[in-house]
Structures are given as structure tokens and as C-alpha cells.
Amino acid sequence: MSNALELACPAKLNLFLHIVGRRDDGYHLLQSVFQLIDWCDALTLKRIPENKVCRINPIPGVPPEQDLVVRAAQLLKEHCGTDQGVEISLTKNIPMGAGLGGGSSDAASTLIGLNTLWDLHLDIATLCQLGLKLGADVPFFIFGQNAFVEGIGEKLQAISLETQDFLVIFPNKGVATAQIFQDPQLTRDHAPITIDGFLASPRSYQSNDCQAVAVQKCPEVKQALDWIYKAVPNSAPCMSGSGSSVFAALDPKTDTANLEILLQNLPKGWIGRIVQGLNKNPAYNLISSD
Fold it and tell me: How many CB atoms lie within 10 A of CB 170?
């Protein structure tokens, strides 16, 4: 068996995000379609003889107790009672605080990878249950395919989506998720929809109930939406998750060469990419690197 694994940790887009209610414990009930995209962090897991979890390139300002990959590894160790150790290296490419699920994807890939590296043989359902303890989006990345999502993010149904390109813009200003969901102006009674309803007319459902609040709290969200409107006039840009990234599905006829030129002249600090939708989480394509 290999002593190391290299895994890609993909981002996701919320093709829509509707808040349909609220539980007694305060958690919001949502509906969404999560689309995997080929904007990925790079994770390396290396087995070590010591009984410890070692992060060799920590993110500045993020203590170990808040580091999702460290927490994921510790959670798996405790659940299985294993005395195996791991050295973790993570290269961040997905912007933090962007609403693209990068941290959740990193945690999911850690669970997926260590399940293999440590020869634990846990099934996906068990990994999803563990992942939910780390964050509402983690089970989706363990599920590993595009999904119609309900509940607080834990109810997943596989959905088949056409492969297409997206323009994604991160205006380099995060929006605190807690601030969005605590705002009294947040819509919390969106009428539920069905998978069939979405598939019959995806564009008609493309809205994000968090967007109006986010625009008020972070003007950069509105600026990014306006940038896409101008760059791709016939698109329907929308915010992903609780922000602050915004995106638009690109028509196959879109002049992507010209769009790439425009992306070179984004406002200072902004990050923009043309990405492609994925059908499966590439973390499951484990690449050994002895």
C-alpha cells in the first residue's frame, strides 16, 4: 500500500439557494443544487509512524483547532481508535470566505484520503455522518457528485447536470455567514421546489436568498455582479452560497478568449476564473506518490 496520497479538493457553486424554513434550534432549512467545478485545492497525505496529526504548512492566522483538515484527521482517529499518524500538506487555490466550499472540500478529501491511507474501510454514509460534524457542506463533497440538497445541507440526491463552463469572480472581500443568516431581512419562506421542476427550467430558479442581504453588507458583491453583467451581457449572474463569490453560466458561443483578456484587468485584488463543471469529486481518483 502507498505511504502517501495526492488528492484534488474541488470547489462548488450553488446554482441556486433557497431558504424554505427554520428549525427550532435556529438552523435554516434550504434547497440548493451543488455543482462541482474544476477549481481545486491540492492535498497531500503522508503516513508517518508517530501517532499524531501533523500539518506541515499551516494557513497563517488559522490555529490547529480551527483548521478543518486537522480537525477532520483527528475526528477520524478518534472515531476509529487508530494509532496511525499523518503528515498533511495543503496548497490553497480556492479563495477563503468565498462561498465556494473550499474548506469543506479540504475536510472531505482528508476523510476520503485517510479512509484509504489508513485502511479503515468506512462506507460513504459513515464518512458523511462524520463530515457533518465539521460543517454542513462536508457531506456533499464526500457524496462526491452533483446533488439536489435539502435540510441543512445533509439531505443529498444525485442530479445529472450538463457539463458547462462558468465565469466565477471573487471580489476579495468575504461575507460572514453568521451575519447573513442572523439578518432579520433574510428571506426564510421560499416556496419549496422539486428536482423535476429545476431540471425542466434551471435558469428560472437561479436565485440566491442570501444575495440581497450580502449586497447590503458587502458592496463588492454588487460590483462583481455588475462586472459580469457588463462582460457577459446575456448572462444571469448570481452569488454562490453566502458569498461573496458570484458566477454566471456561460453560453457555448461565449467568446472565452476575449473574456480571459477582460479577466486580466479585474479590479485590484479580485480573482476571476473560467471554470468547468465536474460530474464527480476528483478526490476519489486517488493518485499514489510513494
Answer: 28
Burial (CB count within 10 angstroms: exposed 0-12, middle 13-18, buried 19+), residue 77 = buried
Residue 289 confidence (pLDDT): 45
Q: Give dist(CA 42, CA 33) in Å, integer.
A: 24
| Active-site residue flag, 12 | yes
The secondary structure element, H or E, covering residue 179 is: helix 177-182
CA-CA distance, 103 to 59, in Å (whole number)?
12
- Shared domain check, 213 and 186: yes
Report the domain count for the chain: 2
Place of cell 497525505: 45
| Whether 238 contacts 246, CB under 8 Å | yes
Per-10-residue mean pLDDT, the chain, length 290:
90 97 92 98 97 92 90 98 97 94 97 96 96 94 97 93 96 90 94 94 90 95 97 94 94 92 96 97 72
pTM to 2 decimals? 0.94
- Rounded Cα distance between 78 and 76, Å, is 5
Separation of alpha carbons 13 and 166, rounded Å: 9
Cell (9 digits) for 107: 475536510
* Domain of residue 142, residue span: 4-159+281-288
CATH assignment of the domain containing 136: 3.30.230.10
Tell me, yes or no, whether 139 and 207 share the same domain.
no
Is 24 a residue of the active site? no
Per annotation, catalytic residue among 106, 137, 165, 209: 137
Do 136 and 270 lie in a common domain?
no
Please tell me the predicted confidence (pLDDT) of residue 1.
58
Mark whether 132 and 103 lie in a shared domain: yes
Q: Does one domain contain both 140 and 37?
A: yes
Q: Which of 12, 46, 77, 173 is catalytic?
A: 12
Q: Which residues pair with 6 in a beta bridge?
A: 44, 287
Do 154 and 13 lie in one domain? The reply is yes
